[in-house]
Amino acid sequence: MNEYEIIIGLEIHVQLQTETKIFCGCKNDYEAGPNTNSCPVCLGMPGALPVLNRKAVELACRFILAVGGEINTRSIFARKNYFYPDLPKGYQISQHERPLGKGGVIRIESGEGNSEIMLQGIHLEEDAGKSFHLADSSNIDFNRCGTPLLEIVTMPVIRSAQEAYLFLHRIRQIVQYLEISSGDMEKGALRCDANVSLRREGQHEYGIRTELKNMNSIRGVEKALSYEIERQISLLEQGGFVLQETRLWDESKGRTATMRTKEESPDYRYFPEPDLQPLELSGAWLEDIMQGLPELPHQKIDRFVREYQIPPYDAGVLTSTRQLADYFEETAGLCGKPKQASNWIMTEIMKIMKDAKTAPEELNIPPRNLAELINSIENGTISGKIAKDIVVEMAASGKTPGEIIGARGLEQITDKKVIEQAVEQVLSENAENLKRYFDGQQQLFGYFVGQVMMKTEGKANPHLVNKILKDKLNGR
Amino acid sequence: MEFESMSAAQIRASIIKGEFTASDIAEYFLKQAKAENSRLNCIISFGDSYAARAAENISQKIAAGLAPGKLAGVPIVIKDNLITKDLRTTCASHILEDFIPPYNATVIESLLKQDAIIIGKANMDEFGMGSSNEHSYFGRVPNPIDPEYVPGGSSGGSACAVASGLAPLALGSDTGGSVRQPASFCGIVGLKPSYGAVSRYGLVAFGSSFDQIGPMARTVEDCAILFSVICKHDPRDSTSANYVRPDYLEALKGRKKFSIGIPREYMAEGIDGEVLKAVQDAIEKAEGQGHEITEISLPHTKQSIAAYYTIANSEASSNLSRFDGVRYGYRSTAIDDLAEMYIRTRSAGFGAEVKRRIMLGTYSLSTGYYDEYYLKAAKVREIIRDDFDKAFNEVDLIITPTSPTTAFKLGEKIDNPLGMYLSDIYTVSASLAGLPAISIPCGKDNKGLPIGLQIIGKMFREDEILNLAYNLEREIGYNLKQ
User: Fold this and answer.
1) Which residues of B touch A (CB under 8 A)?
2) Residue B95's domain is classified under what CATH number?
3) In a shared domain, residues A285 and A304
4) How does pLDDT run across A95-140, given as a tens digit for each residue?
5) Which helix or strand (DSSP H or E) is residue B462 part of?
6) Is residue A301 domain-shared with residue A280, that is, in the same domain?
7) Domain coverage including residue A440
8) What is the number of structural domains in chain A?
9) Same domain membership, residue A388 and residue A369
10) How many CB atoms lie under 10 A from the CB of residue A98?
11) Which of A101, A299, B389, B406 allows an S-S link to A64, with CB 3.0 to 4.6 Å?
12) What is the mean pLDDT of residues B308-335?
């Protein structure tokens, strides 16, 4: 196993969230009724011409600049020619020789540390329609035709299926951070084809690669790559060789199968799109975009670790979305206890969000309420245990911790006399157990604590209960 | 006065004065065109409903005391590669034989706004591919002067209609000479505008980086009127140029003095003697009008045909991919699978010349040939542009013959595609460079066939071309009716 080096390159398509399509004024919404968002341009009617949507360019530039890529201030569109029923013009308007962007780096974090995935080219193109095959007919919905796509191609620098998984995860996170795409792979807003080859360690040239298509989830990409790597290894181990071909991933069968061989692969006959002028971008316009870029996930992770002194793992979880990261920062800022804020968010708050399927900004618990709750624990007003009940009610009612504590009388009991009373009561009611305790069953200590907590409806300060109980027992 | 000899300006004036109604004109021309068409075959579909609607609009405007449009009541024939909403648009191809478009080309909207009367859709070489109008699914069109001869192409139907008096105006399209050459062969005026002057939105593409819609008329003045209606910036066409258009009718006025270049490469081998003489006579007349004549050189003229056909066919091979039988147009029924649908539909749907060009273009763009063909041609194109840039540093306008010969006989070049391509030698250079060029009549040969003179101008200087053409037209005094 170890003697092979795995070489993976990914080709990713991201649907850009523009109001209208990339080359016409149709609404960019392909979930509407079939063919309702279509016009002569996106239907490829004779005589119709494309006009570039500036917003699509802007969103593409956001990505390129955010990942540190270089923008070609003069880029050209090209036609990629092939026949398919869902491609109305018989060619896709794409970019080829002078794409919008090149280079850039995506950082990913894994158990073994951070790695950097270099990007090759980034370009704009149009999406195709969708075919539906019924029992006795084939149908096409052209709504998706002309949805702007950003194509991102990595250098062949990914070294494992797991790394590909992390990379895609990060890409999805970045496009969500940049608000340029939903990044939803199940819905096709993010798509990924993968190239994979093996080479013996120490070998210089790349091995023969296969291209994998038809993966519908990030996990699917990882699984397809794992399968394909195993397949290639066993081929090579048996003295066989890998064929250069395109293979389709079959999710249900968990395997890949030949789609077409190299000989069958189409010649796309790229040439400059004569219907569109070269795209020229001014430095000032790009500077504006640059100024509006948000902090990226990996930058946030680093800053959280540095500024809030929380573990990298916590920082990774808290930055999974911009909204969650904002929620954490606001809470931490208000209560001044970042680690506690992190713990609460990573456990209780994320559970509440998951159960109710809500985003942080829709949560009934604004950061100031969570901060108040954390402070109430820290200053001893309530116990951590009761706080867990309170937070559930906060989520349900939107009330502040103070309101709930007041209404339900949940303040923690810190009055020693009250606790002593309760302890005395418990000990006198449990003469039998007390005897056994002194006979050596020390574990009954916990039982006594529980009884005291019950007597005080869980409000007694556990620390004090422990201390007083110990004193009393030792005093007997 | 006979309607068919009236100019566009005269027809409009007579309607405004109330001498005729727009319906009178529309009905007369439609009736006449239908009667003549059995002989001329220059119209593929008639525009009755368009004509009736326009006539009605004009009457209402006049009744309401509003000024009717610039083309009020003026009959016009539209090349059948311009998209007309609800009116069959075939590109003279079997594959679009029954295609009824759901929208209008920008130029059609401009015409309707100016109250033009659309008489019908003109025959042409299929998808604009040809120089003789013989490559039409709807049959050949004769030269109106002598039916043994071709009218030129690809806008042969448009030229024939105007020369025959079926309409004073027509719209053609010019990729490598398709407005100018038929204008020359039929003895009328045809202007290929600067690339970007007229919107291509709704022009069925042949060679996208060359295609321009151009006005055709019997006189330079009518040509200028029509040009002024269609020449405007269109945000729906990304290659449409955004600049302030001058008043092209004003541009006709006065006799401006120009420095005129005569490219020596055009007046050399391969040119018919009578054509050469007629053009030289016209140049003398221009000199007599006070223009300064200088010999210039366009050294890469010889390479222009190869460069043009390589690039135009490459673009065409891609442009015509959309005719696949999936969404509209002809679809073969004898099919079992997807590949067969494409193959049979396109094999039966396209004519021989179109298929030849798709194959040539596909070849030029293929891996392994792209650099040698498409890319090299694109480089030659830049060199030819440079030739013109240099020439226009010295002169304002360039005069050449439009075609090396007058009209050739029907069938004469049908089996000789290369010979047919070579007849575009004088027109393709301006197309490669995107420059505006007009063809105006300048004489006849001994068979009575018209000879055309081409004036090429600087980018977006149609005003200068029109001024010289207008003054030469009056001097030459050529009249087809003579």
Assistant:
1) 81-83, 89, 91, 96, 99, 101-103, 105, 200-205, 207-209, 235-239, 314-315, 317-318, 320-324, 326-328, 338, 342, 362, 365-367, 370, 374
2) 3.90.1300.10
3) no
4) 999 999 999 999 999 878 899 999 999 999 999 999 999 988 889 9
5) helix B462-476
6) no
7) 416-475
8) 3
9) yes
10) 16
11) A101
12) 96
